[in-house]
Amino acid sequence: MQISEFRQHAHQLVDWMADYLTNLEQYPVRSTVQPGDIIGQLPASPPATGEAFADIFRDFQQVIMPGMTHWQHPAFYAYFPANSSPPSVLAEMLTATLGAQCMIWQTSPAAAELEERMMHWLAQLCGLPAAWHGVIQDTASTATLCALLTARERWTNHRINEWGFGTEKFAIYGSTETHSSLEKAVKIAGFGRQALRKIAVDQAFALRPDELAAAIQRDIAAGIHPLCVVATVGTTSSTAADPLRAIGAICQQYGAWFHVDAAYGGSAAVLPECRPLFDGLELADSYVFNPHKWMLTNFDCSAYFVRDKAALLRTFEIMPEYLKTATDEQVNNYRDWGVPLGRRFRALKLWFVLRSYGADGIQAHIRRHNRLARYFEQALLADGRFEILAPVNLNLVCFRYAPGHLAEAELEVANAQLMERINHSGQAFLSHTRLRGKYTIRAAFGQPTVEQSHVDQLLGLLREHL
Amino acid sequence: MQISEFRQHAHQLVDWMADYLTNLEQYPVRSTVQPGDIIGQLPASPPATGEAFADIFRDFQQVIMPGMTHWQHPAFYAYFPANSSPPSVLAEMLTATLGAQCMIWQTSPAAAELEERMMHWLAQLCGLPAAWHGVIQDTASTATLCALLTARERWTNHRINEWGFGTEKFAIYGSTETHSSLEKAVKIAGFGRQALRKIAVDQAFALRPDELAAAIQRDIAAGIHPLCVVATVGTTSSTAADPLRAIGAICQQYGAWFHVDAAYGGSAAVLPECRPLFDGLELADSYVFNPHKWMLTNFDCSAYFVRDKAALLRTFEIMPEYLKTATDEQVNNYRDWGVPLGRRFRALKLWFVLRSYGADGIQAHIRRHNRLARYFEQALLADGRFEILAPVNLNLVCFRYAPGHLAEAELEVANAQLMERINHSGQAFLSHTRLRGKYTIRAAFGQPTVEQSHVDQLLGLLREHL
Question: Would you report the helix, strand and coil content of chain A in percent, each value rounded to 5?
Fold first, then answer.
């Protein structure tokens, strides 16, 4: 493809992209295809010779698009959102064109220094300690793995990195509501799933510090070292916030690494009224939140902060001859801050987003979503047939249809069917979880373009499909 | 930013992007900025209110661009290339706009099924066993970690995932030329760096099977289990290829997991004349190569193949309630195939690239680079003042200026200075390594737009800066 052709096709795509964003609501939110529908339309073998772009783009529209679930649709209420925004997409266009591999400073100084500055900006926006050191990771799963590994190496003075596990035993603590990525990280880091203590939660689904302290004391008595506690601000099931200050104090008392996972909830720290959820965060050793979830920035962009930069670097650093450069002592070489070596230029989209919206624009974005969630909650309560299953502290509402005449087993079926009917309609997409054993429908109001009218539509859908 | 504004700005960017690709050669390949130059121009705090896109884009051009090293420049000969291409950039524009999070089938069926089919296409293009199962990972570092973890869990029947390390001892084998990501993965997976055996290489920098067998026998005699052997096709320093068939036979004999890292070299498997480098690959348990290096596809796109899909899934699978869906038994949920949960729609760019170029276009791309490397090698030899330090089997030439009158210590300084002068000129970008203790300049001819005229320019630069 010649550059002149690229220019022409790219202009064509821009019009398609703008039209797509304009017409998003005309698509079914969740794809309606069945397993095998898409792959059955794709030739089993690659073409022997090149094809015209017109044919490729036609197939993108005819074959791929029906198989897309539309994550930017305003009525996407499932899981957590994965925000994009126009300035973020613009930055991704430039990032793809530059095609820079940003593993070390020399391979793109601007990428390394912009990343450093953007982490300063995020820290200020969110009220994080200025002394923390930030880096962009791909996902919170990887960031939590980094935290566990750094904790592991700090406590053993890098003995496991050097010699492997010895006879010491470790415990890692989360709550019964902690994200599954902690269990994955515990396994990857070689502790074994049995080293994970899932501490009980209170009525608001927040980790109980008394239970945590008791578990740690039991472990210590059994000769097991309390290595790391992972607290969450904004759990996946219900956006519960663990009490950071109390947990932090326990971590300090017992010398445990304190990691805070605010993958989703972290963006809300831009709001003064949400800061109480983060009270005690300054006690953390490491912290992760995902601008790619709720801060208008395309996936992947997970912001990981660590207090002890030296411990992080010593955990990951490898210095082969072919990666040595003259500036190694003066700059951040982010390849040593995580698992992968290669890195995209991910700071650019964050810069475009933060400048395009400004601090007040980001705040307005988050605040509007929180308000919509409370509006939805009130409407459900006013209806009288619904039950709210968790406190609404951010923009997620956990609920179920719960008329008095149905037994628990019937409620389970009724709510699963209700959700599936709505999802099948293509007019909204909800997801579910289980809270205290109850089948729970989740509605997260986090789309850049979601308005009160969409919430009213969702309420109408619920009544219609009951 | 309204969609109408987005449309306008995106069209503006497209013209900038096409102009950039047209005028790439006018930029210095390696950025000429000094540490701190960029960050010093970036405000310490984010703006309180949103800024106009014109201002952001102006700063992108004035502040960021001088700090970019131009990875798509035809005279970028450093490291290994990170190919992009016009159809790949077009796909990234669409991926960013859709903003889909492709962690499981339901969250974008087309992404999951296109990924499955693209892995079939790559397997066919590269002559991989049809029964292997492929998945896109971010980098080869992560893929190699996956291989080690799967080997760990398969051998212990998932006991380490469940209970952590016991008293057994493991050894992992690479060569002295194996990429540093193996050492990183060995540490992350909890084996400890001392578990890594760096086996000696032969005159062509390929792992010596006799030394491998001897090391394994020593370990077994010492009660250490030979867990995994990592062979490389296309080492980072010199693109050496380890003898896969002989290594595979040893792995079979001792029950070791056989992982092949062809992160860079793997793209060359599209050429019949390069297939001998991959002889014995069918013996591997897992395999990784990076279309984002040498197959015209934007980073990140690392293709990981595994023979035993069940072992891979059992290693990573976590099934919380909020991720359960009705189709879990029928489809590939790629979140269980690696470390991160969240996933971009990365198959789209591969589809655009493979269809745009076709098999013969991809072959021509690789073949041209290999030919340019041999042309450069011959020119250096004809000059008489240069020494070729490793066999040129792909598109990398390892060389040094070595006139007879200089001692070894002088050669070291002379070559480091020669490389730095050329890199500083901005007219080409080379990197270095060390082969048998000798300071070695590396020139990789892998850019989509590199032509023989560029190689002639590089020869001129070398003569000029001697």
Answer: 50, 15, 35
Q: Roughly what angle, to the nearest 10 degrees, separates helices A347-383 and A86-98?
A: 150
Which of B42, B89, B125 is opposite residue A97, by nearest beta carbon? Answer: B89
Q: What is the pLDDT of residue B325?
A: 76
Average pLDDT, chain A: 96
Is B274 a member of any domain? yes
In chain A, what residues touch B431 (CB-CB under 8 Å)? 322
Tokens of A363: 């705040």
Any domain includes B53: no
Is residue A338 assigned to a domain?
A: yes
Rounded distance, CA B445 to CA B458, Å? 11
**Residue B158 backbone class (left: φ over 0; alpha: ψ -120 to 50; beta: rest):** left
Q: Above 90 in pLDDT, residue B153?
A: yes
Cα gap B284→B134, rounded to integer Å = 13
Within a domain: A239:
yes
CA B272, B274, B276, B277: dihedral to nearest 10 degrees?
Answer: -150
Q: What is the mean pLDDT of residues A206-235?
A: 98
Contact B116 A63 (CB under 8 A): no
CB pairs under 8 A between A and B: 487
- CA-based nearest residue in chain A for residue B191: A164
Phi, psi of A132 (to 5 degrees): -70, 155
Count of structural domains within chain B: 1
Polymer length of chain B: 466
The residue range of the domain holding B341 is: 93-353
Question: Which CATH number covers residue A264?
Answer: 3.40.640.10
Q: Please, are residues B205 and B396 in contact by the beta-carbon 8 Å criterion?
A: no
Buried b (16+ CB within 10 A) or exposed e, B234-266: bbbbbbbbbbbebbbbbbeebebbbbbbbbbbb
Predicted pLDDT of residue B288: 98
Question: Most B CBs within 10 Å: which of A2, A4, A6, as the mutation test of the B interface?
Answer: A6
A267 vs A296: CA distance, rounded Å: 10
pTM for the predicted model, two decimal places: 0.97
Among B387, B391, B441, residue whose Cα is nearest residue B416: B441
Total residue length of chain A: 466
For residues A241 and A232, what is the distance between their CA atoms, to the nearest angstrom?
Answer: 6
Three-state SS across A302-354?
Answer: EEEEECCHHHHHHHHCCCCHHHCCCCCCCCCCHHHHCCCCCCCCCHHHHHHHH
- Strands in B269-353 per DSSP E: 286-289, 302-306
